[in-house]
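RETRY 2/3 - previous attempt timed out on the joint model. Re-submitting the same 702-residue input unchanged.
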Amino acid sequence: MIENFVFSLLLILAVLLFTKNVRRIAQNILMGKKAGINDQKPRRWKTMARVAIGQSKMGSRPISAVLHIFVYVGFIVINIEMLEILIDGVFGTHRILAFLGAIYPVLISMFEILALLVILACVFFLTRRNLVKVPRFWNREMTTWPRSDANIILVTEILLMSSILVMNAADGLLQERGHTYYAAMGTFLVSDMMQPWFAGMSEGALINLERATWWFHIVGVFIFLNYIPYSKHFHIFLSFPNVWYSKLGPLGKMDNMPAITNEVKMMLDPSGAQDMPAEGEEDIGQFGAKEATDLTWKHLMDAYTCTECGRCTSSCPANITGKKLSPRKVVMDVRDRMEEIGKLVGKKGKDATDGNSLFDRITDEELWACTTCNACTHECPVNIDPLVVILELRRYLVMEKASAPGEINTTFSNIENNGAPWQFSHEDRMEWAEK
Amino acid sequence: MAEKEKMQVPVMADLVAEGKKPDYLFWVGCAGAFDDRYKKVTRAFASILNHMGIDYAVLGTEETCTGDPARRAGNEMLFQMQALQLIELFEGYEIKKIITICPHCYNVFKNEYPELGGNYEVISYVDFLDQALANGSLKPDLEKYKGIRITFHDPCYLARANDIVDAPRNILNLLGGEIVEMERNRYYALCCGAGGGQMFKEAEKGDKEVFIERTEEALKTDPRVIASACPFCMVMLTDGIKYKNREEDVKNYDIAELIALALGSNQ
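RETRY 2/3 succeeded.
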């Protein structure tokens, strides 16, 4: 009885804490500007089904794609067993789903196979990160915390899966020995093979082992659940909405700035501009982004969705050739800055500032190294758009700070004066046909 | 090189003055007009248009920058100045269809001008040529590139930006060359290093220039020809080939030039 009470208390605590954490992140994301993404719903559902649920963009790197599928499917399917554990925990039942009869051992066996695959995948992942040292896990932005975060997640998953298997092995042994509480339910495929490891244990010890692993698993899940909002692992929740809200059109299309259109129309034709819709009469505010909150909420959701896999950075031409720019770092910087702003606002109220901005994290050198080639946006398995952040920051640099590299300024004045990025005259535009 | 003659190229203002309304605007682009290497591509494509008897015209001295490099370098104001002026000019000439030989111009016309009120049928010369070859309106010499190893460098603004990856390969296949793919190709192609305003400035500090990385990758396929379809890529790859001292045995051609050469109608 006391067990059920303790369990229920822990469950309520875990859920409340998690809700609080999710609300914190949601509040941070909603500090972004409006984005008004609500169009083409059927296409958005299809994209989400293909890219997020179907993992279609993972396949370009087959090894991590296959390993990731194990963990992903494992996570989703094993959640059915979570349901059983929760019911058992609250009501003091034992394996409530056993009423399914002959299906039950099949179900558990399936979970066990997946658990084994998850363990295997995580061991591979740990090896790739820490022993093989796949380069994209060791870029400049992969400092101690991001690397530890990844390892914590992988080790936790191994522990959680192992505890299920050990628990089932102990349970299976108790079933074989005819313990009344552990009614026979048939063979569990994987843990059955593990039984010899524990066969020498007494009935009491087995019961303790079964209980201990059960508690270890569920308390582990509660802790992990509340670790995730502080971790890159939050992608398991945000990937789906993030893909749903992602850019559908051609990657080459840049966002327009309607505020500028009216300004320009006014310059070109002062009389005609009066017919323009009233939106131009609003305060047009600042051009581009200086601060994370100058980006739209979708770009902030991008940042919280990033799981730091580094596919973007490892395909970025600037990064490949040793420049400082790393699209992953840009996305991580936005997220880390939002965490900072979130804390600040939480402490000192809505309009609090600390005098810092994204530019304290992202240097001009990084921004000017981008070729806008869209390799990063194309690579991202969850349709994050690092390029838009780079471009919004460039817009701020150029239009608010007038601080572009000298050659870029020359290019601007050439376009303005000669109608070409180079200093050539209009008159020579037909030279190619001459001779 | 043979002495080149002046080409007959119809200019929009002249035709309109005569009361004519050509089907297509051939948008040459700044590189097509001013970059010595790409001028040859412009000639090649114009010669193909002439060869096909297409009803087209260029803007000539009225052409100006689309504003694309300004936009990508953060100068939205300058971009929209250029764009809105051009849209007005196009309106005056009642332009409906635009063929571009620059993927950057193609992208900005196709994807970004509509939001500013400029709606046209925008056609990449690569798609145009692909169709012309497929429907038989162009009949190149199919023996010309027999056994010649050609690798194709995908321009970012055709492939990733606008999903044009098959058309250039269809063309090369039809021309009969032996196509060898680079390790990073199609949607995964590595940028030449010139996009996003990089064309007009020195690269940031790093271990290597992007164009060298890409040229090395192209050379790994042991090609005789590195084909491309973008003026900036052309500049970068030409520099790369020079840098690797391979000018003698590896040539860089634009898709349009390869076709024009096979038509025997070039330059």
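The domain at 12-129 of chain B is CATH 3.40.50.1860 (Rossmann fold). Closing ticket.
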